[in-house]
Amino acid sequence: MMKSYDLIVIGSGSGGSVTAGKCKKAGWSVAMIDSRPFGGTCALRGCDPKKVLVGAAELMDWNNRMEGHGIQSEASIDWNELMKFKKTFTEPVPKKKEESLNESGIDTYHGKASFVSENEVQVGDETLKGSRILIATGAGPSKLNIEGEENFTYSDEFLDLEELPKKIIFVGGGYISFEFAHVAARSGAEVHIVHRGERTLENFDSDLVDILMEKSKEIGIQVHLKSSVASIEKRKEGYTVTATQGEDSFELEGDLVVHGAGRRPSLDMDLEKANVEYDKKGVKVNRYLQSVSNPHVYAAGDVAATDGLPLTPVAGLESHVVSSNLLKGNEKEVEYPVLPSVVFTVPKIATVGLSEREAKERNPNVKVIHEEVSNWFTYRRTNESHAAIKLLIDEENDLVVGAHLISNEADELINHFATAIQFKITTKQLKKMIYAYPTSASDIAHML
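^ that's the sequence the OP posted. Answer follows.
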């Protein structure tokens, strides 16, 4: 027997949850489908559990920096105990999430969703019909088409390791590799990152990335640039990664090979049967986040081909837009605010607004404030050796147009600059602001 709903949501993360909740509150009949435990990537396999591990790495770094400056204890990370602590955050999520959905009247289905028509979805033995369907399935690891690809360990599996291997090879020089590498290195593992490009973390300021590379090398991370992985071979014990670097090739032996080479939209749901057009960026949508080819279908989050960054807050924002358009008719266009982004290494590196190149292309006279700040009190009090800022100022309008930071305070500090850019707060106004002292925010006036 076919079940019919006003709305079917495929995916239980941020991109789908907002829409499901709002439409149910408005009286719609709603179903939610997920092939994995309910809760989404951020809560279960991404941002939140990662941040728990990063916290341990920060503590290790802090202790090491302060050794000989009043701190004598020799801390170490017990990986198994750390993972048990992490599970206290992740394990309760699926049950609580599903209970909350069911209590609100949303029906939940476990299994892979596959379209059978423009408004029908198959889940296991059941067929669901939806007046509207929201695709919010997020993203998964990119396929690299290299020999031995089946030997990869993926980020969600890394976050579930009961024991940390002694030698780990990360493929790809993006934020996933660097965040996990900083945790693993401080937990005692030998760490390699193999990256095919000339520079890592390409969406972040190159001068500040250079500083992060120095710190990474200092803690033992070995980064192999301009190196393309040709194959991953499973041995009796461990793996052999063969890579090429120009005309030469080299091999790395490791106990674990982790995929950190980007993610792609999760589109495996027979979209052709639903007449839903898509490309490598995701489901093709109009300005209302509605499929350009099937009016029954909308998409939000990493699976949608939009200008939004693949970030949890963006998925939530897009889900709000979808819910408004479903309930009121297509009248709300998605508008992206200024979007700060952070790599949670130790130290962290953060960015918001224009890059230096973009700013100079728009205004050749843009003022660039680039300063190493580890000698400032905020950083010197914890003996932090790698801290710097780069601010881009439109002097004609007295506005910050870009901010790039590296330090252990960068994640919180970047939000102040995001606010300034979003609401066009002048540097004169920023300098008048009195912040609690001494805090990293109280340095803002001195930065400008």
